[in-house]
## 1
Amino acid sequence: MQKIDAHLHVNLAGVDADQLIDYMDRHDVDKCWLLTWEELDAPISNLYQNLSPEEVFRVHDQYPDRIVPFYAPDPKTKNLEGTIKKHREKGLRGCGELKVTHKWEERIIGNYLRVIDKYDLPLLFHMEEPRMHYVPDKPDVIQQVLDKLMNGALNGITKHYLTKFSEKTSILKDHIEDHLTYFPGYLYDFANLEKRLRQFPGVDFIGHGPHFWNNISDNPPEILFHDKGDIDRFGIIDRLLTSYPNFYCDISGRSGFNALSRDREKTKLFLEKHHCKILFGTDNTGFDFEGLVRSFQLPDDKLNNIFFDNADRLVTG
Ligand SMILES: [Zn+2]
């Protein structure tokens, strides 16, 4: 069975171009979508890592048959259309990963969608909710420890208890409050996303990220960063995948792996139902996504859609 990994980066998590190709060879991955990350004024600089289009095209030039080049310029880019046009002429096949602190409702995102619609590019994007983020200002041990505990250790549980505990200890409370910065979230407003799906039927939208995947269930978590436990009822992503022919998802990242591992019965239903809308991808995690998907023993035609056909169709039209 042919395979496309629809969510990979170069120079992320220590993976350079050679290691990327080596990973693809070892896992019989024929092609990958290679994605950028560009945010011009990231509000919290230590949450951001620039992954440039130059690097994507450099690897593409080396391995033109294996690499499908994607680039999502920051929506604030001056002459966005000129930038897209120039890269389209160089062989750009998609827009992604769009991981920016904007909301779907903003006018700048409307303009962005008009441009990629004109150049016939699918859009792969990341959804994450706003939160308070602990930002260390000195490299001391205590701040390093707090950085871990406050920003995701044990899936958000340590942040919850540490914040509660700090309310009783004023030094810690003051310190934490002084170091918390508001993180405005990435493209997290589902209601306005739905309006954009209707407004741009010619754009194929591919969602992923913690907020996207937490909404596989209809009651997303308050404390946990990645939700756990059984899925009683499917959430909004099930409805959007059902209702909109231009809406897709990629299963990559810890968020996708977690969402598809928490309730095997419901996951099997989800894969059976949306096999024409789901794209295999890993996002440099090294998690065994292939083993996970295969463990549900879907028929070959459905597996073929998830592992290859859906991604192939989206970039070949
Ligand atoms: Zn990614």
## 2
Amino acid sequence: MMVVVFDLDDTLYSEVTFVYSGFRAVANFLFGIYAVSVIDSYLFMVKQLEQGRGRIFDETLQHFGVFSKKAVLQCIYVYRGHKPDIKLYEDSIECLKRLNGFPVYVVTDGNKLVQKNKLVALGLYKTMNFCFITHRYGVKNAKPSTHCFLKICEREKVEPQEIVYIGDNPHKDFVGIKALGFKTIRIMRGHFKDVVKPIEFEAQYQIQSLDVLTVDFLRKMK
Ligand SMILES: [Mg+2]
């Protein structure tokens, strides 16, 4: 039986919904300490994001005349620590139901606290056999490192060919594990959906939705 491993952000849920959720938490925080309008600061942060600006909290605090280095750190603290209001994609929910009985895992990069809050909010600690937040094992073990994937081989007592990873980011999701013989599927959504990379970075399969990922599909994978 195949072991099915999922990436988290933009594979199982939409990452931008986490960002908006974080902005709402920061907007409420700014209202609480500086009486800045919640809706005004929220919309300002969204606009900064849409314009591709970095240092969004610096810009926001400056715009509303309440900038300090301490306030920036407080915003980051609120953003990272907040309880996110996020949901799994509909096709993720259906897919996980279909795969009931298969060993299922998550391997995700990113800030340890932030990723944990997302996994809790999405109920994935209950659904998955185990969720690997790669940064728990040191930054050097983030993707494309194969470290956490080999841990899954050990846990399940299987060879790489018996594990499939579904991710959205061709820059790092597939290149490391593909070389070891893990199976790979790229879901074409989120930030990277239009990115084209050399063949060694690309997944074996490209899918538009997790609806494609049926028991039959897994059985027929080469
Ligand atoms: Mg991702």
